[in-house]
Amino acid sequence: MNNIIFIGMPASGKSTVGVILAKRLGYDFVDTDLLIQKQEGCLLKDIIAEKGTEGFVKIEDQVNAGVQAENTVISPGGSVVYCENAMRHFKEIGTVVYLQTSYETIKKRIGNPKKRGVVLKDGQTLKDLFEERRVLFEKYADVIISEDGLTLDETIDKVVGLFD
């Protein structure tokens, strides 16, 4: 199928790049964090607080693995790489693009990870999370786009160039 699925750290630009890319390609856009919030009836940070990180990841896996789309840019949350069913599904329905950013850029953009609904285990730092997920992003990516030093438009142009 011809979907584009963005993976990457929170604050890597998956939604921002995704919305603009969808407009440029004439595709639909789906932010799966919004689907999760709609299904659960509350914000991500509240789901994590109530169900814990493992409970949240189960919900995330179920919602993402159930996405049915065509000609769509899909932006899942950064923790989707912990969801084997979801990642297998995404690999089947489209091209998985890793928006790669440096830790310094993520740290600057993200602010307080807890307020943003970032899935952190007890005692885990943002740096620990970055290193742990980087390996998974690289494992699942069909394509890696390094964003460091690029403007938003340059990043989008790079992605568009893959699908022209």
Keywords:
five-stranded parallel beta sheet; single chain; 164 residues; alpha/beta; globular
Quick synopsis:
The chain is an alpha/beta fold and 164 residues long. The protein has helices at 14-25, 32-40, 44-65, 84-93, 103-110, 126-140, 152-163, and strands at 3-7, 28-31, 72-75, 94-100, 143-146.
Fold topology:
Blueprint lengths: L2 E5 L6 H12 L2 E4 H9 L3 H22 L6 E4 L8 H10 E7 L2 H8 L15 H15 L2 E4 L5 H12 L1
Parallel strand pairs: 1-3, 1-4, 2-3, 4-5
Describe the fold and architecture:
This protein is of the alpha/beta class. The chain has a five-stranded parallel beta sheet with strand order 2-3-1-4-5, sandwiched between helices. It is globular, with a radius of gyration of 15 Å. It starts with a strand and ends with a helix. The model has no long low-confidence stretch (mean pLDDT 92). It has helices at 14-25, 32-40, 44-65, 84-93, 103-110, 126-140, 152-163, and strands at residues 3-7, 28-31, 72-75, 94-100, 143-146. The protein has seven helices and five strands. Helix 3 packs across helix 4.
Number of strands: 5
Largest sheet: 5 strands, parallel
- The level of helicity is 40-55%
Poorly predicted residue ranges: none
The shape, in one word, is globular
SSE sequence, one letter per element? EHEHHEHEHHEH
